[in-house]
Amino acid sequence: MENGLPEEKPIKLLAISASPRKNGNTQFILEKAVECMEDQKFPVELITYSFAGKKMESCMGCLACYKNGGNCVIKDSFETIRKLWKEADCILYCTPVYVAGIPGQLKNFIDRLSNADYGLDIRGTRHMKTIGVIAQGGDFFGGGAELCMVDIMRHAAMMNCVYIPPDASYVGSGGWVWDSHRKAMEEKAALATKDYQLTLENARNIITRSVEMAAIIRTGAGKLRGVLETDEKYRYYYERTVEE
To answer: What is the pLDDT of residue 67?
Structure first.
């Protein structure tokens, strides 16, 4: 045991770049944010995923997943990221603002993930992951980043997860990308602008708080296993997260 957690099983952090655009602002700020991994109090395994170049169709509402154990009948990139999402302890979404909200690909994933979850034999599964968000809009204040954060907050609630804001903000880490110029964040980093520094500081704080809360959840769940595992809604968590 190290820091109260099994050494062989670190906290799994899934960092998702939700932009359909490759090597833009979203990918840049995410890569900078996760550079703080070595500073965490607990061992962390970082897994990254990018929506760029991926196909993510919208949910058809066919409800086939309700009848076949939560499996989606659409054959695209969904099952790959769904598996990563299910196995992670922490989810960090990094997203651009698209028309005052999250991009269509990310919304499609969230819709299908929620429906597939209802297709499990246990409704209302306690996933108990931590979820945080970094969002970048065309303006630092009122650019839509806060609306993306609200989208992700609803998603976290639907999936029985814990939403994690940074210490210095109510809801998340928001960035300003200079009228959606795809290299804006990189330019701001080179100039060390105050808004960029604040965005990065909040993003890294979300990661730290997410990892800490994930460790608290795992430790508490382990201590309370004898009580909670009799409730089928926790079964999924214990089967995939807590070691014997």
So the answer is: 83
